[in-house]
Specification:
Blueprint: H1 18-34, E1 61-65, E2 71-75, E3 78-82, H2 84-97, E4 103-107, H3 113-125, E5 131-133
Helix pairs in contact: 2-3
């Protein structure tokens, strides 16, 4: 019999992280492509302003107002047409469920400010204080 009198090989316990990095990069690309598609609300022509971005901690309640002055509220992935009284009632139910809710108004630039002001007043009257308006930046 032959015996070897040499060093024993030390086993190294290492994890190969290259496949994990590949998966992470693929997921990053998927999220970058899909994130612009997740915008909610109806299609409106936004006014252009010089604004800063809001810091939103959770998904806000989006209320859209088209050029005709019709109100829409986002529920999941769809926007439901409602009147001003229904807007107040539904906002109150949502506010009772989540007192930290933020409401964002998305109004067409051709819509009368009267419609926006009435919607904001109805939402503020139930106690919601975190309110924002969606605009686009100036086109120079």
């Amino acid at each position: 019999m032959i015996y070897r009198l040499g060093k024993k090989k030390n086993l190294k316990a290492e994890i190969n992280v290259v496949p994990y990095i590949d998966v992470m990069l693929v997921l990053l690309i998927i999220f970058m492509v899909l994130s612009p598609l997740l915008i909610q609300g109806i299609e409106v022509n936004l006014p252009k302003t010089d604004t800063t971005k809001m810091s939103i901690q959770s998904e806000p309640l989006v209320i859209s107002i088209n050029a005709k002055g019709e109100y829409f509220i986002n529920v999941g992935d769809e926007s439901l047409s409602i009147n001003l009284e229904e807007l107040k009632r539904k906002s109150e139910v949502i506010f009772e469920a989540n007192p930290e809710i933020e409401v964002v108004f998305q109004s067409d630039k051709d819509a009368s400010f009267d419609y926006v002001a009435k919607a904001m007043a109805s939402v503020q009257s139930i106690g919601i204080s975190k309110i924002g308006i969606v605009t686009t930046g100036y086109a120079d």
